[in-house]
Amino acid sequence: MSAIKLCDGTLSERAASAVGFLTGQKTYAAQDPDSPDKAADALATSYVPGTASAPDESRHACSIQKAGSVGEPYLQINVQFADEADADEAADTSAGNRRNLEGLQYLDQGNTALASGRFAELYFKCVSPELKSSSETTPALVAVTLESGAGVRALHPPEKATEEVREANLAVVHSVAYRIARHWNCADEAKLSATAVLKRVPVSASSSG
Q: How far apart are the C-alpha atoms of 48 and 46, rounded to whole Å?
């Protein structure tokens, strides 16, 4: 299967190219049973306003594996609900923030996004009939996350990760986030579009306290 068909046809051309760059592969295992739409539907049933998902409520949106392989995926993308504390930590650009020890913060059209050589996270807000009790005053806060598997880490060691690797991770996360936001009919409110618009945010010199 080609990269453009992965994740139930979710990936943009940029994200599909990013998958090829990250994995060093041109073909992948046939579609896994996970999909962004199925993950969104399953996650919606657990929505509680202002509350982050429990660990067992995080849903697999897409697993990208080597053709013929049943082992650890190259890339695993999950979706869950976050709370304001999660978002505040992700948005903290101070040098004392533990995530900034290995990652970089970006803005994707106003949404907070983090990326390192081994992970990426993108947060967006959503109000949707699919998320009962979500509202303009209490929107759902959604986190889409990516974890790199051993195959990707071997090709791109996290401790030597370049900005190209970080932005590739974000390109994949963005495509999945956009698909989920569209599924919930909140892409406009979530400030997500078909193409990621990334702006790096400098880390400040102050401590996070």
A: 6
76-108 CB burial, b ≥16 within 10 A, e <16: bbbbbbbeeebbeebbbbeeebebbeebbbbeb
Specify whether the CB–CB gap between 14 and 196 falls below 8 A. Answer: yes
**Residue ranges per domain, the chain?**
3-201
pLDDT per residue as tens digits for the range 104-124: 777 777 688 888 889 999 999
Residue 71 CB coordination number (10 Å): 10
In the structure, what pLDDT confidence band is assigned to residue 145 with cuts at 50, 70 and 90? very high
Which candidate, 21, 13, 7, 15, places its Cα nearest to that of 65?
Answer: 7
Distances in Å between the Cα of 168 and the Cα atoms of 71, 164, 184 are: 22, 6, 25
Count of beta carbons in the 10 Å neighbourhood of residue 130: 18
Which residue is it, tokens 């539907």?
Answer: 41
d(CA 141, CA 126) in angstroms, rounded, equals: 7
Residues 6+ apart with CB under 8 A from 180: 36, 37, 39, 40, 61, 79, 142, 144
To the question of pTM greater than 0.85 for the whole model, the response is yes
Nearest to 203 by CA among 87, 97, 88, 120: 97
